Amino acid sequence: MTVRPEPAPPAPSAHDTGAPVRAGLVLAGVHLSHGDGAETVRALDDVHLTVMPGELVAVVGPSGAGKSTLLAVAGGLARPDGGTVTVAGHDMTAAGRRARAALRRRHIGFVFQSGNLIPALTAADQLRLPLRFRPRRARPGRDPLELLAGVGMADRSDRYPHQLSGGERQRVGIARALVTEPDVLLVDEPTAALDRARSHDIVRLLAREAAQRSVAAVMVTHDHDVLEHCDTVYEMVDGRLAAVP
Ligand SMILES: Nc1ncnc2c1ncn2[C@@H]1O[C@H](COP(=O)(O)OP(=O)(O)OP(=O)(O)O)[C@@H](O)[C@H]1O
């Protein structure tokens, strides 16, 4: 695990071409408040974050610090009050609602706490669904069965969620998020329902996929055990994000 001071350094050059590598995700001066009047909560307070392709960033912090809000804004699910969010070079904050939804489907994969799978679909069909609904000009996507094999689920591709363990459901959830070949992966507490060994397996898998597929990945977690697999760790406190010294 390496810890990097904030703000992130300039993009490095690609070894083979000398071309600059474009950041997968950039949040610059992002603010967001919930509620109004005396009830206002500043959930994000001047947040800066740069995640390069291939990098797995962890965000830790106390309950209510703003971590889920950070993922919602990074994923274009919520619009910040100020600042910009850029995904694979596209300014999400400048885009209208429909354009933002298209950018989200084209460039972003989400992984949720417990997999969030659809009960009536087999593991393979969980992956086929987002491929069917991908927007025009999106990448063709990965082969669902190959991808399931890659996450250790080759012999369970025809199982339904209730026939899978918590760790297996999470593997399917990760594969589903990756099947559309996103530039950015946003991961919310992936180990919350898992034991220690499974938790390490899942975060190792996330780090491997991010590195091999040049995905910029952000994982929110309360699980300090798994931080060793992450490239950079940030802490969020009262809406402010800081690199962990
Ligand atoms: N829709 C909302 N309306 C009003 N306040 C909200 C809303 N969503 C979140 N908040 C408040 O914003 C702050 C940040 O919430 P957020 O869910 O981002 O925290 P978190 O760090 O993800 O917490 P946890 O670790 O418990 O999931 C909290 O004070 C929360 O109560």
TrEMBL record:
Family matches, as InterPro entries: AAA+_ATPase, ABC_transporter-like_ATP-bd, ABC_transporter-like_CS, ABC_transpr_LolD-like, MacB-like_ATP-bd, P-loop_NTPase
Sorted UniProt keywords: ATP-binding, Nucleotide-binding, Transport
GO cellular component: plasma membrane
Pfam families linked: ABC_tran
Domain of life: Bacteria
Every ABC transporter domain range: 25-244
The keyword ATP-binding is assigned to this record: yes
CDD domains the UniProt entry points to: ABC_MJ0796_LolCDE_FtsE (cd03255)
Gene3D superfamilies associated with the record: P-loop containing nucleotide triphosphate hydrolases
Annotated SUPFAM superfamilies: P-loop containing nucleoside triphosphate hydrolases
GO terms assigned for molecular function: ATP binding; ATP hydrolysis activity; transmembrane transporter activity
Protein name, UniProt field: ABC transport system ATP-binding protein
Biological source species: Actinomadura viridis
